[in-house]
Amino acid sequence: MFGAAYTLWMYKRVFFGAVTSDKVGGLTYVTSREVVLLSLLAVSVLVMGLWPYPFLDVMHASVEHLLQQANVSKI
Question: Which domain does 64 fall in, by range?
């Protein structure tokens, strides 16, 4: 119960509290270059999640070889 109360108190201070540091107050928002890079990263993660076959096909030969070596008896 104390943990939940502390978490809510901390959340309120972090997200809704006033900026008390001059360094934090002087920060700028995300630039257009950063938006483009983050968008490309988000799109690539989405593509990998929805259509993973091109990435899995690249690994297929090495994984197949590893499985063949694992199946060989060591005795």
Answer: 22-75
Q: Are 55 and 48 in contact (CB under 8 A)?
A: yes
- Phi, psi values for residue 53, rounded to 5°: -60, -40
3-state secondary structure of 29: coil
How far apart are alpha carbons 36 and 38 in whole angstroms? 6
Confirm whether 50 is domain-assigned: yes
pLDDT digits 0-9 by tens, 15-50? 888 888 888 888 888 899 999 999 999 999 999 999
Is the model's pTM score more than 0.70?
no
State the first-to-last Cα distance of the chain, in angstroms, to the nearest integer.
57
28 falls within a domain: yes
Task: Tally the domains of the chain.
Answer: 1
Q: Virtual CA dihedral for 21, 27, 29, 33, nearest 10 degrees?
A: -150
